[in-house]
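Friendly challenge for the regulars: who can give me the structure tokens for this chain first? No prize, just bragging rights.
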Amino acid sequence: MGYRELFQDSNEEVRERYELVMERIAKISGEHTVEEKFWDYFRKAADFICLADNVMNQALNGELEHRTLEECEEINRQFYYDILPQNYDKSYANPKAAVRLLGESFGPVLCFLYTELRAMISYAFEGRKMHMTILCELFVEIYNCFESKESLETKEISDILYWFFHDYSEVFAEDKVRDMVEPEYDFFTRIVMDSDLSDMRYLYRYGEYISASEIETARFLNRLSEDEIASMADTLTEGFRIGYEHIGKDLKEKETVCLEYPIGFERMVRAVIRNFEKLGLKTTIYRDPVSSFGRGNGRKRGCYVKSPNKQYDFDHKADSGFYMDKVYVQRRLEAMKAAFEKYKIQAKKHAGPAVIEIFGEVPFEPVIKPEALEYTAEQNELNVYQASCLGQLTNRYIPGDERSFTIIAYPIPTIGERFEDIFRETVKLNTLDYISYQTMQQKIIDVLDKAEKVHITGSGKNKTDLWVQIHPLSNPKKETAFENCVADVNIPVGEVFTTPVLEGTNGKLHVTKVYLNELQFLNLELTFVDGKISSYTCSNFETEEENHKFLYENLLCQHKTLPMGEFAIGTNTTAYRMAKDYNIADKLPILIAEKTGPHFAVGDTCYSHAEDIPVFNPDGKEIIARDNSVSVLRKEDMSKAYFNCHTDVTIPFDELGAITAVEKDGTCTDIIRDGKFVVPGTEELNVPLA
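First reply, four minutes later:
Bragging rights claimed.
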């Protein structure tokens, strides 16, 4: 069975409903039965739906792969034209434009509907007639209200939207779980494995926005040798395998692995899938969420493309606020539990994610629009509660102590003219000799394990002055506080890290510029008191209120505070050198950036949901610093222990004054001084810094 068969029954169930609603929508463009200022909106939306209907018919008839390249490009243009930056100011998907064109009363809800209808693009390409039908019926129901009522109230439209998401929670929840753990949903796998990757038409089978970046990436990978592709694939899959060794679990007990990747990387992905098959794992692939039901914190997930317009994404990050309340959240949680229960066998056999990330986009500084929806204070609390419950639910069916992951990153053409050089340097970076790093990092750990606390200071414009409390060792011969991290789950190599003791961790963390979760933060300052954020600010916006709100939503993830879940010292000075040589420091992903200096994660620890599993360094010592006073609360109340976020903030070497280990008797030993490693035996790390 494949993805077509999965939806065959549901497609047949709604066949008559679909034909009737499409017949109605096809007539809307020729009608003029709504108030003048709304007519263009409904006409454009109806035309969009008819375009999606045409594509779905081609998908179901097996005609999509036979289109000419020109036809592929034209359909892609029509679907994405009005959300591209150059056209966005006039788009109904732009909250500001929608309010200007449709009024303050109906502009926001119609903007939301217009955006939600865009999910039809993926439903059409995948041939999901049920999903198309329910969205079409939603659109017609709202159109009928504008057509038949002279004194229409906004609440009536809001209620329709609310009950739509309430009533169809099961549909969206099942999508989310099934697509992650069920290999028979093979829409993306078949594109990767069956396509002629030298024919760029295959890129347009996804239904995602295909830009010059995806095309250039695919063509570049096609020029690489088989050995180069194999090396890239082996690095990812071997890291995943070693990750299971690291947690002491048998990978043979698992059956599936979820592969997340950027479109354009299919040649590498094909090799990765074959590698996993040799390990006895089938690959699952899901689409980056297209509905407000599934969108998260803005990070691209699943199978994805470079965003057509990051401002569009930012404007709609709180769209679920149109229908979120306590009743809805409880309904969604029930639906997710039912979905996990339906696929509990597949979930139990699921090994975790293998992720390919991309970097190189121009750092994005968002514009905050008052017309865009914002969560209320109550909804912020509901978001936190919902995330906590969903995390616990996932952990129940895919236990955190029985799964692993691995992540690797590569640049894309938007990084600049030297893309190919940077790509090849990144491949080298991802395959550095981990043995030499392991040896040097152990010398750093030997110093840190004697410390009661560590003092980190900035230099120049960097105002960092921070004390981090370290877990004491009861048996130093058999225990360690720091993990010696080599290239397994977290590629590339290069860091030592610990879970700090919160009590006694105090001071200020400051970076002049950092790129986190696809957003740029300027002059980020976090103040810690007993390991928890007590205050925070940045200089992205003119007012302190805007800066505070920006950080609350995008760094604290709507929590009032977050603990420091990790303190680490990045040792990959080669990555730092690459960033300097190519002037791409502001474009590095967290995955690489965290290896280029000391970093501090806010949120959960690195051992989240797996604190009770013994973990050992290569020298045989057990890493005992896996818990803090927050994560240990899981034994009483899981909702108080986890935050479902973990964001690393890195101080680059050129902003670093010193990192000093301070023993209980006051003895001080520098790890780094004036941006250079000074522990004997680590001199090689300074070569790229010269």
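The radius of gyration is 26 Å. Residues 82 and 327 are 35 Å apart (CA to CA). Your move, everyone else.
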